[in-house]
Amino acid sequence: MTEEKKQSEEFEPKIVAFLCNWCSYGGADLAGVSRLQYPPNIRVIRIPCTGRMSPKFILEAFRRGADGVWVSGCHPGDCHYIAGNLYARRKFTLLNNLLHSVGLEPGRLHFSWVSSAEGEKFATVAKTVIAAVKAAGPNSRFVKLRVEVA
Amino acid sequence: METRTEKIRETAKRLLSEGKVDLVIGYRAGTIPLRTAPYFARTVEEAENLIWNSHCRINLANFLPRRKDRVAVTAKGCDARNIVNHIIENQIRRDQVYIIGVPCEGMVELDLVLEKEGRPIQEVIESNGKLTLKGRDFSTSLDRAEVLRQNCLTCAHRNPTVYDELVVDQVAELEGVDRYVDLKELLAQSDAERYAYFQNLVKDCIRCYACRDACPLCYCHVCFVDETMPQWLGKSIDPPDVMTYHLLRAFHCTGRCTDCGACEAACPMNIKVRQFTRLLEKDVKELYGYEAGLSLEAKPPLTVYRPDDPQEFIK
Amino acid sequence: MAEMILKKSDLAEFVKSLLNDYQVLAPVKEDQKVNFAPVEDGEFLLDFQNTFSSPKHLFFPQSEKMFEFSTDRADEGACILKEAGKKTPPRVVFGIRPCDAKAFQVLDKIFRNDQYSDPYWFGKREATVLIGLGCNHPCPTCFCTSVNCGPFHEEGLDVLAVDLGDGLLLKPLTEKGLKVFKQAKGLKPADDQAGEKAAVLKSEAEKAITSKVFTDQIAQRAVMELFEAAHWERVHESCLNCGTCTYVCPTCHCFDIQDEVAGAVGDRVRNWDTCMSWLFTMHGSGHNPRPGRKERVRQRFMHKFKYIPLKRDGEIGCVGCGRCINLCPVNIDVRDVVRNMNA
Questions:
Q1: DSSP secondary structure letters along C70-121
Q2: Exposed, middle or buried, A77 (CB in 10 Å: 0-12/13-18/19+)?
Q3: Is A147 a domain residue?
Q4: Angstroms from B90 CA to nearest CA on chain A
Q5: What is the pLDDT of residues C328-343, one digit of tens each?
Q6: What is the mean pLDDT of residues C43-48?
Q7: Shortest Cα distance from B236 to chain C (angstroms)?
Q8: What pLDDT is attached to residue A3?
Q9: Chain A partners of B251 at a C-beta cutoff of 8 Å?
Q10: In this complex, do A102 and B237 lie within 8 Å of one another by their Cβ atoms?
Q11: Cβ–Cβ under 8 Å, residues C321 and C97
Q12: What residue ranges do the domains of chain C occupy?
């Protein structure tokens, strides 16, 4: 028990969070301004809209050693660009299924809709994501450390 | 098969002599047994070389994007759907393509034949559903049905759905086929088992990109593998790069793939790359009710949305 | 030294006697494909056509680390390239076909010039003893006899083995081969009968190769005449530019070098590359001297059948192994292309 606790105490996951500029980034900002606490494991990358997300970004984040990836955007119907998140929703569904089918552990890849008024939700989701990634442990399956060839 | 060959030649000659098309894209006999080659007939004499047999595995729709001429293409069910796809994606105009539809009863899997007959084969004669294989000091025969391709055994559209003419009567579609039996079993396994399965699947990949080059959907001027700023994946055979390649390529085919199997036919290492594209095909069918290339008016699933699209996994 | 006989029942003894000083590689079947793999006894194939991929990867692996480096200024050797990669242990490769061995000879000429000798290639070559296996039954697609090679050709081998049925007749060809002979167990002196039998097998094998191509006209014609021939318009039409031919070919040798950096450490890696790719000749400016499939397809055949013979004293850049014929997804047959070039 002590061993496990020690391990999880030592492991601090690195989570890349892709946040859409208009809603989720604003929500994160609000969480900060409101001094809502959540663990410091996320590294934010601001994108104009979740419609900008590409599967290449998610795979690249895992390749570079991210233990978890979180993508968050406006609620469907509230997209600043009208429908960016609606197109993204289909891509996320398919990519989420694909990555899990090929062996991505549950708890590493997360998606959410957080509006710029939802500071509380942002902090709550952040805590959920960080806990889930922590439980999944260090990324060993989709990471590329050094090239392993002859 | 013989009837199809005759009819294809007849149609091709007619279209060429009437000046309806500049070129007929079909198949010619291979220079070695069990193969065919894509053939580009420009004259009535050349049209005599067109054939149709159990080895027409390469998808001729691959040769359509960005063409400026008018072409006729012999197309089985899956290939015709890819032609529809190209028209929807503005890679060729409908009036440029004359679809010579060929109702198909399946193509033979080369590796299965070679597995069953390990000795060098010098000649193959196909007749009445049987393949007679002849080599030095031997002659054996196989039923076509024993060696059909996996995608053909579970084919959902043997008859072209969009065409300008059919060379023979439509064939009966397969009934009661579950295309995803093996995937369902796979998905029931643990994530560790699935990870091991897919890592093992691509361990022999030599990054030749034959799968991509044989695929009619892959027509990007600059493929993601050649992008450099940023570079998304390495060029070596390091396993993480190999997996990245296959995952992203399959994803780029989402909602467009017709499971024609040209990718597996082209792969020199016999890798079952369709396992990736089929995962996505299954989701597209089950979640969005879409199959690629069935009609010219259809909208590919990633170009549209519905307000009630599934999203249980989104917090 | 005289030729020796190795009975098939003594194969295990032979292999084991070498294991002290050499790693032994021989043809084995993995997943329906025959390839060279380490063996420790006599359990390997003598009855096979040829390996699936060419054995050039023994000396020229598909991906190979050349150097490693660190960019961390705190490191003593920061930003200095250090040699990477493992040294190849001495090894014996059993069962190389004469076409593949001849290909190594061709590549020797390419990996060495008057100023530079590729240490990665030659380091492995020097560490390796090649025991070839003559082809008693050439494949229907073989045409080695048309390209300065043959089913019992000796160039590039250290020992040539001929399968006589119950035993192998081994003929040492080089000092390296002799060294293995002296150390190996299970060898017995061969009698004249064995030599005669081998000669008969050789001539039958050569007769069995019915696929012929002629390259005499190609040798005589000017480069531009071959380059501007009309048939190239038709050859490239069906080519997918997939690169399969280049990767399975025993004489194709082009490569790309890239640095792969992970944080503050990196590796310089050499990977096989293919002239079938548009990126192969793409300039940074955006200009591509081989912009289309026609130029790239033409390049491959011109390189093998005209440029290499011109630059390497008549050596042809093809050994007639037939792998490209068997594996090309659109059945572009090199024999037909060469016939058109020579017509």
A1: E--TTSTTTT--EE-SPPPPPEEEEEE-HHHHHHHHHHHHHSB-SS-B-HHH
A2: exposed
A3: no
A4: 20
A5: 999 999 999 999 999 9
A6: 89
A7: 6
A8: 54
A9: 55, 94-95, 98
A10: no
A11: yes
A12: 4-208, 216-342
Backbone angles phi, psi at C258, to 5 degrees: -135, 150
d(CA C161, CA C179): 16
Q: What predicted TM-score, i.e. pTM, was given to this entire model?
A: 0.94
pLDDT in tens, B106-137: 999 999 999 899 888 999 999 889 999 999 88
DSSP characters over C221-264: S-HHHHHT-TTHHHHTTS-----HHHHH-SS---EEEEEEEETT
Peptide bond just before A13 cis, omega within 30 deg = no
Query: Coil, strand, or helix at residue B145?
Result: helix
Distance CA C104, CA C304 (A): 14
* 8 Å CB contact of A149 and C65: yes
Please give the residue range of the domain that contains residue A83: 10-44+53-64+77-136
Q: What is the mean pLDDT of residues C237-256?
A: 95
Query: For chain B, which chains pass the contact test of at least 3 CB pairs under 8 Å?
Result: A, C
Count, residues in chain B:
315
Burial class, B149, CB count within 10 angstroms (exposed 0-12 / middle 13-18 / buried 19+) = buried
**Which residues pair with residue C24 across a beta bridge?**
C92
Interface residues of chain C, partner chain B, Cβ below 8 Å: 31-33, 49, 53, 62-63, 137, 139-141, 234, 237-238, 240-244, 247-248, 256, 258, 260, 269, 271-274, 277-279, 325-327, 329-333, 335-336
pLDDT digits (tens, 9 = 90+) for B21-51: 999 999 999 999 999 999 999 999 999 999 9
Q: What is the tally of structural domains in chain A?
A: 1
Q: Is there a contact between C271 and B115 if contact means CB atoms under 8 Å apart?
A: no
B232: closest CA of chain A, how far (Å): 7
CA distance C126 to chain B (A): 25
> Residue B22's CB: how many other CB atoms inside 10 A?
15
With 80 as the cut, is the pLDDT of residue A2 above it? Answer: no
- Chain C residues in contact with B206 by the CB 8 A cut-off are 53, 62, 247, 272
At B20 the three-state DSSP class reads coil
Domain positions in chain B: 2-109+148-303, 110-147
Rounded-to-integer distance, Cα C163 and Cα C161, Å: 7
Chain A residues in contact with B313 (beta carbon < 8 A) = 93, 96, 111
Chain-chain contact of C262 with A145 (C-beta, under 8 angstroms): yes
